[in-house]
Amino acid sequence: MEQIILSQYSLKDIATEITNQLFTKLKEDTASPQKLLNSAEVAKHFGISKLTLQHWRNAGTIKFTKIGAKVFYKTEDIQALLTSKNA
Which residues, in sequence order, are CB contacts of 52 under 8 Å at separation 6+? Predict the structure, then answer.
């Protein structure tokens, strides 16, 4: 049996690649009725900074999903927030 030795750096690269592929799949999955937006997209949509968006997350103002170190938002949750702000 052949042994393969991976350095910590190699493992980190592999984990990063797997995570990136999962993110790509989640965003491209057209079978899912939910589209995921990243923090930059949501901040731009609302015309706010990423820090303000983080404060909204911490305060529970906006729902989010965290995958690894990345934060995503469902379009339906963004729409619900817009609706509640306009009500």
Answer: 43
**Facing residues of 15 across strands?**
none
Helix H segments across the chain? Answer: 8-28, 39-46, 50-59, 75-86
Instruction: List the domain range (segments joined by +) for residue 60.
Output: 31-86
pLDDT at 71: 93
As to burial, measured by CB atoms within 10 angstroms (0-12 exposed, 13-18 middle, 19+ buried), residue 64 is: middle
Q: Give me the amino acid identity at 53.
A: L
More confident residue, 6 or 32: 6
Q: What is the CATH number of the domain that holds 49?
A: 1.10.1660
Residue 58 lies in a domain: yes
Total domains in the chain come to 1
pLDDT at 5: 74
